[in-house]
Amino acid sequence: MSGRVDFRPVASREDATMILRILNEAAEWLSSRGVVQWPPRFRESDIESYFTEADVFLGWLGDEAVATFSISWCDPLMETPTLPPAGYLNRVAVRRDHAGRGIGTNILSWASAFVRSEGRRYLRGYCNADNGRLIEFYTANQCRIVGEYTDDYGRSLLLERDARQPRTQTVAT
Question: CA 124, CA 78: separation in Å to the nearest integer?
Fold first, then answer.
């Protein structure tokens, strides 16, 4: 990767335009490959709760927004009585022209450190059970499958990473 990606909290709802652009690019790419992970297209109304229910971040490479993700502190779909509290990573998206440069791996490392700094031991996320490439990415980056559920998008896997793990060195998506 050329340059360092800085992850910063979203400053205002004006950043919604950039977030939507990145999410829609990723959603269209997933849909074109037959992966049903998200809706084929996000609308502003789809992400309204995003700003009140989670910490939302943009990844910046210089003055260009290249990634987005959020971390929430509770997630009814992912919480179970047998799992300890965690930070929940959602809507991770990297601009396609920056894919394969290690930004996804950097997001996992940064998000783990953020979750740890907030007193949580685990970072959790989910993905469609049919998205083998994404499951491979997560497991190569110290995540393990801890559960599954079914929703409007089909069967999904719940993955978990110990936030105390050192930074990963795997370079992928």
Answer: 8
Domain CATH code at residue 123: 3.40.630.30
Tell me how many helices (H) and strands (E) the chain has. 4, 7
Q: What is the model's pLDDT at position 74?
A: 86
pLDDT tens digits along 10-35: 877 778 889 999 999 999 998 888 88
Eight-class DSSP state of 165: S
Tell which residue, 138, 146, 144, 157, has the closest CA to residue 37: 157
In this structure, is residue 156 part of a structural domain?
yes
Residue 4 to residues 39, 50, 63, Cα–Cα distance (Å): 30, 26, 12
Q: Which helix or strand (DSSP H or E) is residue 61 part of?
A: strand 55-61
DSSP annotation string for 130-142 = T-HHHHHHHHHTT
* Residues contacting residue 147 through CB under 8 Å, at least 6 positions apart: 78, 80, 83, 157, 158
Domain range enclosing 58:
5-162
Q: How many domains does the chain have?
A: 1
Coil vs helix vs strand at 99:
coil
Q: What is the pTM of this model?
A: 0.88
> Would 173 be classed as within a structural domain?
no
